[in-house]
Design a protein that fits this description.
Elements lengths: L6 E2 L20 E9 L4 E7 L5 E8 L6 E5 L5 E7 L7 E6 L8 E7 L7 E7 H4 L9 E5 L7 E4 L2 E6 L9 H6 L1 E8 L5 H15 L3
Parallel strand pairs: 1-12
Antiparallel strand pairs: 2-3, 2-13, 3-4, 4-5, 5-6, 6-7, 7-8, 8-9, 9-10, 10-11, 11-12, 12-13
Amino acid sequence: MPKNKKTEWQVGDPAISVVGDQFCNPYPMDLLVKRKFQNFSKDNYQVYDPSGNLLLQIDGQAWGFSHKRVMRDPAGFTILTMRQKGITLKNKWEVHGGESKEKEDLLFTVQQSQAVSLKTSVDVFLAENNNVKKSNTCDFHASGGYSNISFKVFKSDALIAGVGLGVTHKFTWGSFCKGKYNFRVSVNPEVDYAFIIALLVMVDDNENWC
């Protein structure tokens, strides 16, 4: 693991597997994410590799007080389920493997770092950390947002993924408010891209109030 500040996760660093080892690649990945508004309450995300192969698809509620999103593989099998925890001062999500709600299947929890902020900032707690009630140390931290195309994900001080890392985006305020736009996510080597995509989708929901 990188020890210096403002470093990036690189080839040779330990794998960061949260959802599953099969989502960790030994090389950097640039993923294309397409979001499309389906109706008043639902939308869809599709994630493609640089060759145009479908890797992930995420369905769920675009609006409402109790968001639920399901990530599936290209064949339609459920990988994980994201659920927003009601109305709280700080938005909070719990992510479970498959369609489960059981505590033993919890993968990680995402919570806003601050209740009120002009810049989206969230802390991520893995299941084993989340179960320690007195722990205030998060496993990952993410900040930024799609609207300014600068969202980045860190493990300690090491950058592991982000939106806006030297790639071209098809993004306009008009398409953003209509709920239809594309963006690219750069994932560093050995980083679980399913985990990164789930995190970015939850943050996108938090920002999408046009």
